[in-house]
């Protein structure tokens, strides 16, 4: 091998070696990586691994009986269905809220911006009680909806969806907002000067740019909704086969000291959530690579 080829090989390896060995605020790669793995193992991996280990005590038949009971299956359908619907609603209206906060100036803008984070700061139990009082048949909103349209919100699956929309709004808004702030108005003006109408500008110019952020916000809102308990348990009504969510069923199993049964249901929730989030992340990665291909 010639000296030129040796120099090329060293040059190709130099960026990677520099990244691993360059000094920084944190210690070296080995220490930082070891701490990260230990931290995630203690807080995430070990607790999650305890679920299938605990449910294994039921045996395969006992596990299947615990997770496939009609009441449990009905709670799966309600939990994932309501979470999916709430995340889709937040995807649309959360993007509109983010657009208004980024592109317009109006009195009270800072107050509206602060209100977006309210579900983060408000205890979930307080949110659930407030929503129940608001949407009950005697509430400020529930009363007119029941009287004028015949819609009963509290203690129905519709109430669950509304509660999940409430707690999921910030995830979409705060994910999309910084991306919109980086999009320059000149891009839209250039598209308009080339003859594109508003819909074409949104579909062909803006949407490809913000789509990865939209999918990330959707995934976060969906994941948050699947595991939500405090804000839902009050407004749901908790009627088996009708408005009983899976987290409530897990709590009921724990109160009955059926720890293995609760772990079995939680394991199914974990697997389903992981598969759905994996699909969303794969779609997000595919879209990012597609956008890079277009730019190239």
Structure description:
The protein is mainly α. It has one domain (39-293): MetI-like (MetI-like fold). 81% of the residues lie in helices and 0% in strands.
Q: Estimate nothing, just give the exact number of structural domains.
A: 1
CATH superfamily: MetI-like
Instruction: Classify the fold: give the CATH topology.
Output: MetI-like fold
Low-confidence stretches: 1-19
List how many beta strands DSSP finds: 0
Major sheet summary line:
none
Strand proportion, as a percent range, falls in under 5%
Name the shape in a single word: globular
Tally of contiguous helical segments: 14
CATH-derived architecture: Orthogonal Bundle
Give me the strand/helix succession. Answer: HHHHHHHHHHHHHH
Mean pLDDT: 84
**Structure classification:** mainly alpha
Query: Could you tell me the radius of gyration in angstroms?
Result: 24 Å
Helix content: over 70%
What is the CATH class name? Mainly Alpha
**Euclidean distance between termini CA atoms:** 34 Å
Give a brief rundown of this model.
By secondary structure, the protein is mainly α. The protein has 14 helices and no strands.
Give the SSE layout:
Blueprint: H1 3-21, H2 29-55, H3 59-67, H4 70-103, H5 109-116, H6 118-121, H7 124-135, H8 142-149, H9 157-182, H10 185-193, H11 198-226, H12 230-236, H13 246-255, H14 259-295
Question: What are the main properties of this structure?
Answer:
296 residues; mainly alpha; MetI-like fold; 14 helices; 0% strand; globular; disordered N terminus; ABC-type sulfate transporter activity; MetI-like; transmembrane; CysT_permease; membrane
């Amino acid at each position: 091998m010639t000296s030129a080829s040796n120099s090329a090989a060293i040059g190709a390896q130099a960026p990677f070696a520099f990244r691993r060995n360059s000094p920084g605020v944190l210690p070296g790669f080995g220490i930082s990586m070891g701490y990260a793995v230990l931290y995630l193992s203690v807080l995430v991996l070990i607790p999650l691994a305890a679920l299938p280990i605990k449910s294994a005590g039921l045996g395969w038949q006992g596990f299947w009986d615990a997770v496939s009971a009609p009441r449990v299956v009905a709670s799966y359908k309600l939990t994932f269905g309501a979470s999916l619907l709430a995340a889709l609603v937040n995807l649309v209206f959360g993007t509109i809220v983010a657009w208004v906060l980024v592109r317009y100036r109006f009195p009270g803008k800072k107050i509206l911006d602060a209100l977006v984070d309210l579900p983060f700061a408000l205890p979930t139990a307080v949110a659930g009680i407030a929503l129940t009082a608001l949407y009950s048949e005697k509430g400020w909103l529930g009363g007119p909806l029941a009287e004028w349209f015949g819609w009963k919100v509290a203690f129905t699956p519709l109430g669950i969806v509304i509660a999940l929309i409430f707690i999921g709004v910030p995830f979409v808004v705060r994910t999309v907002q910084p991306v919109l702030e980086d999009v320059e108005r000149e891009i839209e003006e250039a598209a308009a000067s080339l003859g594109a109408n508003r819909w074409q500008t949104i579909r062909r110019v803006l949407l490809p740019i913000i789509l990865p952020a939209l999918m990330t916000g959707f995934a976060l809102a969906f994941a948050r909704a699947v595991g939500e308990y405090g804000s839902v348990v009050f407004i749901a009504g908790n009627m088996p086969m009708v408005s009983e969510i899976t987290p409530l069923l897990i709590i009921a199993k724990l109160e009955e000291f059926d720890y293995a049964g609760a772990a079995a249901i939680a394991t199914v929730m974990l697997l389903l959530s992981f598969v759905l989030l994996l699909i969303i992340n794969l779609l997000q990665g595919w879209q990012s690579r597609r956008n890079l291909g277009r730019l190239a």
